[in-house]
Amino acid sequence: MSAPSRPRPAAPLGAVAPSGAYSSATSRLTVGVVGTGRVGAVLGAALVAAGHRVVAASGGAGASRARAALLLPGTPNRTAASVARSATDLLLLAVPDDALAGVVAGLAGAGALQPGQVVAHTSGAHGLAVLAPAVAVGARPLALHPAMTFTGTPDDLSRLAGISYGVTAPAGLRVLAARLVADLGGVPEWVGEVDRPLYHAALAHGANHLVTLVNEAADRLRDAGVAQPEKVLGPLLGAALTNALSLGDDALTGPVSRGDAGTVRRHLDRLAATAPESVPAYLVLARRTADRAIAAGRLRPRDAEPLLDVLGRAQQQLDVLGRAQQQLDVPDRAPRQVAA
C-alpha cells in the first residue's frame, strides 16, 4: 500500500503578525536557533531551504559549532541572548529536555525575549508549561517536536520529508504551527499538554529501545558465531517492522506467539549461561508479547499456560538471585569489637 500524499504549502510562511495571522509584507520569517545540536542545526537548515532567514545561532561545544558551519554556513554564532534578540519572528530552542526550563527562564530574565515573538521548542517531553516565563513577557509559546532520529548531517534533510511533528499550541497559533510544519515538509500531530509525557514515552520506547534491542540481538548472534549479524538481522527486522506497522499484533510470529514453552526455556537456559545480562529484558518482552498474543487471539489461554509457567519460574529465579545480590551488597553494619 502506498503512503498517502502529504499536502505542501503553496508559498513559504509569511511574517507573523501580533494577532497570529500572516503579514503579506514579507514572505519569510526572521529566525534564531538556540542549540545547534543534531536537531537544531538540521531544522535551521530546513527553514532556510523553505525560504526563511536564520539570522543567528547559538552553539557552545566544538561539535555544535562545526555542525552549524556545515548546515548553516555564514550564520553568526552568538550567545543565546543575542540570538533571541535577533529572532524577531521565531526563536527555535533545540536544547536538551532537562536544560530547557533554565534556558527559557534565563532568556526571559535577561530581557532577551520580545512581545509577539514566537518561542518554539523541539522537546518531545515538554509542552507549553515550560515556556511560561516567555509567555509572561509577551512571547507566544509553541511546542514543535519532530518524530525522527537525527545524525546532525545533511542526510537528515531528506529524511524530514513527510515526517510527523508532535505539536502543542494555543488556539491562536494553530494555523501558524500547521504552516510552519508544512514548510518543514512534515505533518502536524496535535498533542494535548497533559499528553506530552505519554507521547514522548511512546516514541522513546519504540525508537530508543529498538536500538538497544537490535544491538542485543546482534551481540547474541556474535556469541553464536555469526560474523556479520547485520546481514542476518537487516531483512528480518525490516520485514518485522513493516508488518508490525501495517498489521499490528497480527504480525506476531515466533515461539512466544505459538506457545512453544520448550523453545523459550532453552532460550533462557542458554542466555543465562552466555549473556545473563540479557535475561531480564528477554523475560519482560516475552511476557508482554504473550499478553498481547493472548489479547489478540493469536495464542489461546490454555496453550499459553506452559509458556507462562516457564516465564514465571525464570522470573522467580531472577528475583531470588537479585535478593541474594542485594544482601551481598549491603555493608556489614554490626558493631566491630576493638582488640584489647
Automatic annotation (TrEMBL):
Residue stretches making up the Putative oxidoreductase/dehydrogenase Rossmann-like domain: 25-146
Matching InterPro entries: 6-PGluconate_DH-like_C_sf, DUF2520, NAD(P)-bd_dom_sf, OxRdtase/DH_put_Rossmann_dom, TM1727-like_C_sf
Domain (DUF2520): residue spans on this chain: 165-289
Protein's UniProt name: Predicted oxidoreductase, contains short-chain dehydrogenase (SDR) and DUF2520 domains
Organism encoding this protein: Micromonospora yangpuensis
Taxonomic classification: Bacteria, Bacillati, Actinomycetota, Actinomycetes, Micromonosporales
